[in-house]
Amino acid sequence: MNDDPEQLDQHVEDLLQDRRPERTPLPDAAALRARQTAAMLRAAKPGAGLPSKEFLERMQGSIHEWVGEQSARPQPAARPSRRSLLLTGAAGIAAGLAAAVGIDRLSKSPAPTANQQLVENGSWKAVKAVAELPEATPVAFRAGAIEGFLIRHGQEVKGLSAVCTHMGCILNYSKFRDQFECPCHGATFKKNGQATDQYDTPLPTLPSLEVRIQHGQVEVYTV
Amino acid sequence: MPEDHRTGTAAFASSGTVVALPQADTAQGQDHLTWAYQTHVTAIYQYIYGRVGNRPDAEDLTAQVFMKAISGMRSDVSVPELRSWLYRVAQTTLADHWREYYAEDTGELDDDVTRPPAPRENPEAVLRVDSLLATLPESYRRVLELRFLRGYSVRETAQELNLSETNVKVLQFRALNRAGRDRWRTT
After folding, report:
1. Domain ranges (residues) in chain A
2. A88 touches chain B (CB under 8 A)
3. Tens digit of pLDDT for each residue in A56-115?
4. With a cut of 0.85, is the ipTM above it?
5. I need a labelling partner for A63 at 20 to 30 A (CA). Which of A51, A107, A137, B77 fits?
6. B2 reaches A (C-beta below 8 A)
7. How does the average pLDDT of chain A come out, rounded?
8. Testing the interface with A: which of B141, B148, B164, B185 to mutate, by most A Cβ within 10 A?
9. Coil, helix or strand for A142?
10. Band (A118; pLDDT cuts 50, 70, 90)
11. pLDDT (tens digit, 9 = 90+) per residue, B99-149?
12. Which residues in chain B have their CB less than 8 angstroms from residue A25's CB?
């Protein structure tokens, strides 16, 4: 049995329709590689490859269940008794910040104000030259524990947290739609940090970050 | 979830580099582990989608990866460890998936498991595709661009390229085989 254009096109057609291709046994490794290449091309189509909201919700439930089962199981004696989850590095603290924002929302205290100070006992770190910042187009940065965006308007630069106030994923800026977008559950925010997409409860505005300009460098207050 | 389980979770260590969260034995510790997994779902899904190219398979395999990863992972794990573990499980899961098609271990390509996921509109896939297309002869590149990136049907592609539909399928066949061979060689 040989691979042929007709059979391969059937596979391609399935991918293009986002259908599960038939599991036809393949004659050789070349046929498999052609299909793997087709998959890669398919995923590069604009808008492809993002999980659906339904799937993410389903996974959220399953993961919760699996983690529960896993920790209910007896643990080997050699394991450390204090099984704390350590979130190290910047991602961890970004997560921590998200959790902090989340608390406010859950406990129905007022949403964080634009000037809420996220960092205590930090220091100023230079992240970008002012000259590198295009007018009015957010530029992402990471400095220590902070992930954020810098937005320049004329000589003024503003900093916004890049952590989604829904569940703490890191936001992307879409040039095409000119907004911040969450890869996890699709929340969207305007460039001023205001949430545009309503969930069951309105999402808090993205917190502002403390920034200053020193010798042409934008500095961010961070830990 | 009771509100008080969430409070006090964002404790900064004085060094500012470590956040120690409550123990995993407690309900709130589990929540954090759950949350740490959940934040990786989109990235793992995209990673897998870029390799299987369709939603039903990507959903099944992503679910498998998390089920295996959670049952095989300690609960006192750092986020970077958890991340590279997830990618490693994703690789073996994909290898098993391909084995169903073709009974030989073909391995997985070009994967740096330490690379932190940066979920966007699959930029990884876009970059890889750009450099792949650049190496192909013009007619191969054209047919793949039209079919995959612009979503043309075989008939539309035939009209655009002034070919018969059979010829489009043959050209597509050759282009995918050539690109598959090139990818394998260069990685």
Report:
1. 5-43, 114-222
2. yes
3. 989 988 998 888 887 776 654 333 333 333 333 334 344 444 444 433 333 333 333 333
4. no
5. A107
6. no
7. 76
8. B148
9. strand
10. low
11. 877 665 555 544 444 444 444 445 566 677 888 899 999 999 999 999 998
12. 101-103
Chain A residues close to B23, C-beta within 8 Å: 82-84
Band the pLDDT of B187: cuts 50, 70, 90.
Answer: low
Measured between CB atoms, does A76 come within 8 Å of chain B? no
Domains of chain B, with CATH numbers? Answer: 23-119 (no CATH), 123-186 (1.10.10.10)
- pTM above the 0.80 mark? no
Please report the residues numbered 77 through 96 in chain B whose beta carbons come closer than 8 angstroms to any beta carbon of chain A: 77-80
B6 part of contact set with chain A, CB < 8 Å? yes
Q: Identify all chain A residues contacting B105, using CB atoms and an 8 Å cutoff.
A: none
Predicted local confidence at residue A81, as pLDDT: 31
User: Taking CB atoms and an 8 Å limit, are B35 and A168 in contact across chains?
Assistant: yes
Which residue in B6, B29, B35, B30 sits closest to A103, CA to CA? B6
Tell whether B9 lies on the interface with A, counting CB pairs under 8 A.
yes
SS3 B101: helix
Burial class, A198, CB count within 10 angstroms (exposed 0-12 / middle 13-18 / buried 19+): exposed
| A68, A88, A184 ranked by CB distance to B42: nearest | A184
CA B136/CA B64 separation, integer angstroms? 35
Residue B105 has, within 13 A of its CA and on its CB side, a CA count of 4
Q: What is the pLDDT of residue B132?
A: 87
Strand partners, A88: B18
- Please tell me which of the candidates B36, B51, B173 has its beta carbon nearest to residue A8: B173
The residues with which A218 forms a beta bridge, in sequence order, are A128, A213
Q: Which CATH number fits domain A114-222: 3.90.226.10, 2.102.10.10, 2.40.30.90, 3.40.50.1010?
A: 2.102.10.10
DSSP β-ladder status, A84-88 and B18-23: antiparallel
Segment B30-76, tens digit of pLDDT: 677 787 788 889 889 988 998 999 999 999 999 999 998 888 777 67
Q: Do B165 and A55 meet the contact criterion of CB atoms below 8 Å apart?
A: no
Contacts of A168 in chain B (CB under 8 A): 35, 39
Residue A129 near chain B (CB below 8 Å): no
Give the separation between CA A139 and CA A52, rounded to whole angstroms: 27
